[in-house]
Amino acid sequence: MEGNRHKKAGQNFENTKAEPNGHNEIDGKKNFSEGLLTNSKLEFLLKKGDESEIYTRTILDSMGDAIFVKDEQSKLILVNDSFCELFGLSREEIIGKTLAEHVSDEERELFLQIDRQVLADGIENINEETLTLRGGEQQIISTRKSRFVDATNKKYIIGAIRDITASKKAEQALQESEKQLRELNATKDKLFSIIGHDLRSPFNNILSLTEILSNDENNTNPETLELYLGMINSTSKSTLKLLENLLEWSHSQTGQINLKSEKVNVMALIMEVQELAQHIAKTKNVILQEPNLQPIELFSDAKVLKTILRNLLSNAIKFTKSGGKIAISVIEKNNDVEFVVSDTGVGMSNQVSQKLFNIATNMSLPGTANEQGSGFGLILCKEFVEKLGGKIWVESQLGKGSDFKFTVPISK
């Protein structure tokens, strides 16, 4: 037995030549195309009428893998039953042909390229390929090709094809399950973080302020009392907003949100959202510019759209300094409506912007007036935009403001 180890395309392949022992058996463990198509047996196969031809054909036809032999022109001169079944062709349609008319141009060129390579250098090739069958069905196959040279110095390709479609699908399903598990763990960690910090801290602040007021015995001056009540009111509102986002996100994750497609007047929707945010903007002396929009209507879920815009507008106010401006604009692009929430705020670096919409990497930064938050609103925005069939992204420069953009199909 002779063995040669070749390294090709990052893998080691071992080619082996084996001869039958005294009992006409092949010694050693052989791969699925080796041992059956040894030099001597292949020569028997190529001699029509020999008993070994019938014997070896019977063995080959009992194999689940598709076995084939090609000549130097890549024409098939021998195939087993599994090969015919794989391609859905009879032996008469296969023998003496290259199958060029039965595969796509791209697939044919790849198959022939590998054939030429194996014939030229004699190095065994193992490759995963996509095979398009009759009717357009695609299968993933593992193909093994080796070179054989007979006594007259003629070269042949002997090979085997294994259908690995099912195992590949199982592998992809496993990878997807692992990805979902990682995301689930990240979600769990994020939720515990929000509950442990972003919800507990505001309640502690409210509790402390109410204890001060209850123990003061009416000695607090009106200015201080107004300040404390304002802090309690502000903290309560921000905490309520976080709870609402958590509940909406939870409903989304459990499939409890049923989208309702209705005609939406975009201008009226934006005006309503801005009106609700006007008080917070005035408190920070941030200007919400009145939208100057062309009449646009789309069919979508108005409630979900309001939630998206409300969170984006709240985020813009949080990171815009006193005297800054915020504007909402809308344009039609092909079959989508693109919403843009622009601010003249502090902006952000690329490193920060890439982490915004991922629950595993999302971070919360204090606002320009030291407002606290969880960053959960942006995660909710991404979730809802994708449910509406759109995309969301941010364009920003540190110190120069941000443009949060998202698209929604005009008709969903």
From TrEMBL:
Keyword Cell inner membrane: no
Domain PAS as annotated: residue spans: 52-122
Organism, as annotated: Cellulophaga tyrosinoxydans
Keyword RNA-binding annotated: no
Entries under SUPFAM superfamilies matching the protein: ATPase domain of HSP90 chaperone/DNA topoisomerase II/histidine kinase, Homodimeric domain of signal transducing histidine kinase, PYP-like sensor domain (PAS domain)
Start-end of Basic and acidic residues biased regions: 16-30
Catalyzed chemical reaction(s): ATP + protein L-histidine = ADP + protein N-phospho-L-histidine
Cited NCBIfam families: sensory_box (TIGR00229)
Keywords: Coiled coil, Kinase, Phosphoprotein, Transferase
InterPro entries to which the protein is assigned, alphabetical: HATPase_C_sf, HATPase_dom, His_kinase_dom, HisK_dim/P_dom, HisK_dim/P_sf, PAS, PAS-assoc_C, PAS-like_dom_sf
Residue ranges constituting the Histidine kinase domain according to the UniProt record: 194-412
Positions in coiled-coil regions: 167-194
Documented EC number(s): 2.7.13.3
Lineage: Bacteria, Pseudomonadati, Bacteroidota, Flavobacteriia, Flavobacteriales
Gene Ontology molecular function: any one: phosphorelay sensor kinase activity
Domain (PAC) ranges: 124-176
Gene3D superfamilies: 1.10.287.130, Histidine kinase-like ATPase, C-terminal domain, PAS domain
Region entry Disordered, spans: 1-30
Protein name: histidine kinase
